[in-house]
Specification:
This protein is α/β, with parallel strands linked by helices. It is built from 16 helices and 20 strands. The chain is 42% helix and 20% strand. The protein has a seven-stranded parallel β-sheet, sandwiched between helices. Strands 1-6-5-4-7-8 form a six-stranded parallel β-sheet, sandwiched between helices. It has a three-stranded antiparallel β-sheet with strand order 2-3-20, with no helix packed on it. Helix 5 packs parallel to helix 6, helix 10 crosses helix 11 and helix 15 runs parallel beside helix 16.
Length: 469
């Protein structure tokens, strides 16, 4: 009797998928590589065919394909390329921190182990709740974390059994295309159905809207600003929204000030303050404010004390209720040079003591400019922290040795991430316990997303059987 190897089966599946695409009128991948299509309709159609073939793959296959994504992303030359190419294309962030972010996304994003089955057995039989895929997921990725989000989402979404269509930010097109092609090549070599990960040649608002409205897209995941989150939440489809933040860092008189100063500089300067989780303003109780600033200067902070220079900086980087895009994610030294300040080597962060109503506090700057607000006492600090966070329920940080105070602020501010006595990035699994994610769903409440969030719960009931108790 002749047997057919798994590799032969996968080749046949790939041929069937390509034939299905041809019959549907969808072109194959463009000549530049796998998974990149000229139109959103073609990208979605290809992903849908891939998903249907993927249904025949086992859970072990899924785990193997997830490992491929990890392996491709973690190649040292790929980590280096992604970081440098992203900084070059977007003009934001720094290479070393982007390498760390991509490594964390590839290493610490949960895979199929996140899909846990529930079961009940009793006199009436056996009931299980299984985690099942949606189908084609439409994922919108930001310019701030383009490759990190693709790696993170691709692992979780494919682990859950889905195919995914990415709509990247236009300012991160080249590096996103490169990554998707590399991932698809690795998946093809492992025998995965082609086009489990797709995108379009020319990302645009029009293509994003076409993806949102496409009948074959069953779930939407938006990682970005409030506008794009609102668009997916009003689509009528299952949607996960990961929106903006304005994380406050509160420091009280019981804190380890030396450690708090280093943690805050490390967190607020990480990738030039691009993560939405990063410290965006500091509220320092008056008794320790001067010592905190003094210690921050030892770790790469540069303090602006001249009111005229602070005003000049505000004019440069803030436009009404928004940060000036040209300065988002830029180096601290470049920002200071633009206002005529020659910063010393090693400067990572600009700090300035300002009143609470200052634009630096109100606006999510997403650049290494950190306002410090002096508050009378802990109570005032908590009040102002809640106001400064704007109700985004994204991230907050507090440095304190008072467990009761930590508990009180956590309850009052109700953020998705609450980091105690550490840098902000500990909250996304970099230097803190827990898994990594770059899609933090505050608006829709899923929190730090993983594979289980990209899947449906389905109850299977067997009446009167398999109860052996």
């Amino acid at each position: 009797m002749t047997t057919i190897s798994p590799e032969d089966v996968r080749r046949v599946v790939a041929q069937v998928v390509q034939a299905t695409l041809a019959q549907a009128g969808a072109p194959a991948s463009d000549p530049g590589g796998d998974g990149v299509f000229a139109s959103m309709d073609a990208a979605v159609t290809a992903a849908d065919a891939a998903y249907r073939a993927y249904l025949d793959c086992s859970l072990k296959d899924r785990a193997r394909f997830v490992q491929v994504i990890r392996d491709v992303a973690l190649k040292p030359e790929h980590l280096e390329h992604m970081a440098r190419a992203t900084v070059e294309e977007t003009g934001m962030g720094n290479v070393a921190d982007k390498i760390a972010k991509n490594r964390a996304a590839a290493s610490f994003t949960p895979g199929t182990e996140d899909l846990i089955t529930q079961a009940w057995s009793g006199d009436d039989g056996l009931t299980t709740v299984e985690i099942s895929p949606y189908g084609v997921v439409g994922a919108i990725t930001p310019t701030t974390n383009p490759t990190e989000t693709v790696i993170n989402n691709a692992i979780g979404m494919l682990a859950a059994g889905n195919a995914v269509v990415f709509s990247p930010h236009p300012r991160a097109t080249k590096v996103t295309h490169w990554l998707i092609r590399e991932l698809n090549r690795g998946l093809a070599d492992a025998g995965a159905p082609p086009n489990l990960i797709t995108t379009v040649t020319e990302p645009s608002i029009e293509n994003t809207n076409a993806m949102i409205g496409h009948k074959l897209v069953r779930m939407l995941v938006a990682t970005g600003g409030p506008g794009i989150v609102k668009a997916v939440l009003t689509s009528g489809k299952k949607a996960i929204g990961a929106g903006a933040g304005n994380p406050p860092a509160l420091v009280d008189t019981t804190a380890d000030i030396v450690k708090a100063a280093k943690d805050i500089v490390d967190g607020a300067s990480f990738d030039n303050n691009l993560p939405c989780t990063a410290e965006k303003e500091v509220l320092a109780v008056a008794g320790i404010a001067d010592l905190l600033k003094f210690e921050m200067l030892k770790h790469g902070a540069y303090e602006l004390r001249d009111a005229a220079l602070i005003a000049r900086l505000a004019d440069l980087v803030v436009d009404g209720r928004h940060a000036v895009t040209d300065w988002v994610g830029k180096d601290a030294t470049a920002i200071l040079a633009a206002i005529g300040v020659d910063a010393p080597a090693g400067t990572r962060l600009v700090i300035a003591e300002v009143p609470f109503d200052h634009p630096f506090v109100r606006v999510e700057l997403m650049m290494p400019v950190l306002p410090i607000v002096r508050v009378r006492d802990l109570a005032e600090g908590m009040d102002k922290a809640v106001i400064a966070e704007h109700g985004n329920r994204h991230t907050a940080i507090m440095h304190s040795a008072d467990v009761n105070a930590l508990t009180k602020l956590a309850k009052r501010i109700q953020t998705t991430i609450f980091v105690k006595n550490g840098p902000s990035y500990a909250g996304i699994g970099i230097g803190g316990e827990g898994y990594c994610t770059f899609t933090i769903a505050g608006p829709t409440g899923e929190g730090l997303t993983s594979a289980k969030n990209f899947a449906r719960s389905r109850r299977c009931v067997l009446v009167g059987g398999l109860n052996v108790r």
